[in-house]
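Dear all,

This email documents one entry for the complex benchmark we are building for the journal club exercise. For each entry we list the sequence lines for every component of the assembly. Then comes the predicted three-dimensional structure of the complex as a token string, followed by one or two observations. Please use this as the template for your own entries, and keep the labels exactly as they appear.
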Amino acid sequence: MAIRRILTCDNAADMAVLKSVSAPVEGVDDDLRALMDDMLETMYAAPGIGLAAVQVGEPKRVIVMDLGDGEPEGEAAEGEEPARRPNPRYFVNPEITWRSDELFAYEEGCLSVPEYYDEVSRPARVRLRYLDYQGRPVEEECDGLYAVCIQHEMDHLEGVLFIDRLSRLRRDRALNKVRKVLRDKAA
Ligand code: K1U
Ligand code: ZN
């Protein structure tokens, strides 16, 4: 497994890849599982709760996610939440087959738009169809953070960043902030 570089929106070459529409994959084999393993390790290291393959420069319709909702692990210290077991999810060729009319607003972030968070409204519940890590077909309905995150990641597969869903003013503000953050980090 390897940690890959995450493409960021301040870089024109990275942006050209991030704006591309990802291609469906033929099926789940060991090469694709190796990519998903790298993506998960990259996401945990960032840290983040989701990652689309295009964010590591592979425009394929593949997503990984861990919402931190695994089983509690051991005893929690007083007043603290228990540590949770990893709960990785893998989505190959995901499709949304139904969206609720009801919307849900959430302050989103993106590893390709580092250290910028802003509110986006999306359908509160969606129904999904995808292949899992073993290549088995799965259909399920989700809501809450799961619905937010899968819709955010599926936008990546269409070349859309969450800041594209903001007003022009807020998008420009986001880009300026990201450029400053990354400039300061490089200095
Ligand atoms: O870049 C990405 O697509 C990952 C992104 C996923 C996401 C977060 C929030 C709403 C929608 C989609 C992130 O993981 S940003 C980082 C983040 O949210 C986080 C990081 C550490 C702990 C908890 C959350
Ligand atoms: Zn993102």
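Observations: The pocket of zinc ion (ligand 2) is lined by residues 110-112, 152, 156 (CB under 6 Å). Strands lie at 50-52, 62-65, 72-73, 83-84, 89-99, 103-108, 118-123, 126-131, 137-142.
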